[in-house]
Write a structure and sequence with these properties.
Helices cover 77% and strands 6% of the residues. It is mainly alpha-helical. Helix 1 packs antiparallel against helix 3 and helix 2 runs antiparallel to helix 3.
Length: 231
């Protein structure tokens, strides 16, 4: 068991070095770049949906406009010499109604055109922003790789130490369990009892659990899945 705990100690050192890469400014910049790409992709999809919606509305309004325009041409070409004075008021009403409808449809079309122009403007700005971010990503990746190369020899040396220690492990099953738990994201695997708290998740443990732990020396934490060691 002592050897496995020594290996866990070395694994901690490896993780510390790996976090140096994850927390370096270049890695943070790259995460921001990936976030920008995701947001940009979602924004482009929104703009595309808006553009399609505007196009549908534009075609519908244009059809109405052409319909009213055609009707107005018929009214304009009527032979007013044959119109009775009694019907002249109806003709004027129809003409005014058509003018109003044409004006309204024309206003709606102009509004849709402005929306289209706004969508094009936003799409262009987003495209330029993503293009600039992509240019920077090459430099960012190079800096991350440089940081990885800095810590790689240290990690390699620590991994050699682990390989050497593995040769002296007696309880192979327990070590396999350790590696499996570590691979599943449970790390550190073995933690101490800190007063009445789990040394991993820091959750206060019930008294009956602590009594069982004192008797068995090792118990799995019900909250985080780590193995708590007594003494």
């Amino acid at each position: 068991m002592k050897t496995i705990l020594e290996i866990q100690k070395i694994d901690r050192q490896i993780r510390t070095l790996e976090r140096e890469v994850d927390k370096c400014p270049a890695s943070m910049d790259f995460r921001n770049y990936k976030k920008l790409l995701q947001e940009g992709r979602a924004r482009f999809e929104q703009l595309e949906a808006q553009a399609n919606d505007v196009l549908v509305q534009y075609n519908a309004e244009l059809a109405k406009y052409n319909k009213y325009k055609g009707t107005s041409e018929i009214v304009r070409k009527r032979n007013t010499d044959n119109i009775d004075l009694e019907n002249i008021e109806n003709l004027i009403t129809d003409a005014n109604s058509l003018v109003g409808e044409l004006s309204e449809e024309n206003r709606k079309i102009d509004d849709l055109v402005r929306k289209s122009e706004e969508i094009v403007r936003k799409s262009s700005e987003l495209s330029n922003k993503l293009t600039e971010a992509k240019k920077r990503s090459t430099l960012i990746k190079a800096k991350i790789e440089q940081k990885k190369q800095e810590v790689a020899p240290k990690i390699a040396e620590l991994e050699k130490q682990i390989k050497k220690l593995e040769q002296s492990i007696v309880d192979k099953d327990k070590y396999e369990k350790y590696k499996q738990m570590k691979a599943n994201g449970i790390f550190p695997v073995y933690v101490p009892l800190e007063d009445r708290f789990c040394g991993g998740c820091k959750v206060e443990l019930p008294l009956n659990f602590i009594e069982k732990l004192k008797a068995s020396k090792m118990l799995t934490c019900e909250h985080c899945g780590r193995i708590i060691m007594y003494n």
